[in-house]
Structure formats: structure tokens, C-alpha cells
């Protein structure tokens, strides 16, 4: 599956952004969708994931630091995964990557297990 991320930009603290990831090439509903982020000198960090589900309402998982602020969703008909980011903080500044996988749901937070990645999109939150 090929992935194309979009939606990054510059926003002030407390603001919102919506990232989108468009998938193509294979049947997207068979894949878990996820978002990771990375800052210079640090490893890629798990942000959120949504389980594969034909109805598009798969269960979700979040890193603690974004719970209550970020929401991941999917639209299987459009083969997209979105990340709605509210109440953004300067520490959310990073390059965000979307990813897709068919690994066991128990491992979705582990970046090294993914082989399908979109290009990064930069999110900058100013204080």
C-alpha cells in the first residue's frame, strides 16, 4: 500500500490541525492505520493507531501525551486515515508520518514493525 500524508503546517499553541493520509494500491480496510512523529535526534514515536475494520470504526490507541487532544479516524471508502489534533502544544512539534500495517494489533506501537510509510509532514506549534 502506498501512503500520502498531508495537512501539516504552523499553528499557535492551543490551535488545531488535521492531518490526512491517503492510501492506494491495495485494500485499505485490511490494514491498521497509524501516525508516528519524530524530532531531530530522537526515535520515531508512536502517536495513534486505528484497527483494521471493514466498517471503518476500528478500535483506537493513543500515546498518553495526546489522549483527549488527538483523534484518529478512518474512512475505508476513501482509503484515508486522519488525525485531528486539538489543543496543540509546542512539544507536539515534529515531523508526522502515517503508516499502515497488517501486524498483530498488540504490536501497533512498534515503529520497526511497519513497512508501509508515507512521507513526513511537518507540524510546528509556536508558543
Main beta sheet, described?
A: 7 strands, mixed
Strand content: over 45%
Parts with pLDDT < 50 across at least 5 consecutive residues: none
Oligomer designation: single chain
> How many individual helices?
0
Outline, from the CA principal axes?
A: globular
- CA gyration radius, whole angstroms: 13 Å
Number of strands: 11
- The topology string of helices and strands comes to EEEEEEEEEEE
Mean pLDDT: 94
How far apart the termini lie comes to 37 Å
Characteristic terms for this protein:
127 residues, mainly beta, 0% helix, 11 strands
Brief summary of the model shown:
The protein has 127 residues and is mostly beta strands. It contains no helices and 11 strands.
Describe the structure.
The protein has strands at 2-6, 9-12, 17-24, 32-38, 45-50, 60-62, 70-75, 80-85, 94-101, 116-117, 121-126. By secondary structure, the chain is an all-beta fold. The strands form two sheets. Strands 2, 4, 5, 6, 9, 10 and 11 form a seven-stranded mixed beta sheet that branches. A four-stranded antiparallel beta sheet has the order 1-3-8-7, with no helix packed on it. Strand 7 and strand 8 (80-85) form a beta hairpin. The protein starts with a strand and ends with a strand.
SSE arrangement:
Blueprint: E1 2-6, E2 9-12, E3 17-24, E4 32-38, E5 45-50, E6 60-62, E7 70-75, E8 80-85, E9 94-101, E10 116-117, E11 121-126
Parallel strand pairs: 2-11
Antiparallel strand pairs: 1-3, 3-8, 4-5, 4-9, 5-6, 7-8, 9-10, 9-11
Amino acid at each position: 500500500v502506498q501512503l500520502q500524508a498531508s495537512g501539516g503546517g504552523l499553528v499557535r499553541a492551543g490551535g488545531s490541525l488535521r492531518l490526512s493520509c491517503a492510501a492506494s494500491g491495495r485494500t485499505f480496510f485490511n490494514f491498521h492505520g497509524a501516525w508516528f512523529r519524530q524530532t531531530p535526534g530522537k526515535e520515531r514515536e508512536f502517536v495513534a493507531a486505528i484497527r483494521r475494520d471493514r466498517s471503518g470504526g476500528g478500535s483506537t490507541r493513543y500515546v498518553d501525551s495526546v489522549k483527549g487532544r488527538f483523534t484518529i479516524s478512518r474512512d475505508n471508502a476513501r482509503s484515508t486515515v486522519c488525525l485531528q489534533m486539538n489543543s496543540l502544544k509546542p512539544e507536539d512539534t515534529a515531523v508526522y508520518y502515517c503508516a499502515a500495517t497488517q501486524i498483530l494489533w498488540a504490536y501497533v506501537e512498534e515503529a520497526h514493525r511497519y513497512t508501509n510509510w508515507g512521507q513526513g509532514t511537518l507540524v510546528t506549534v509556536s508558543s
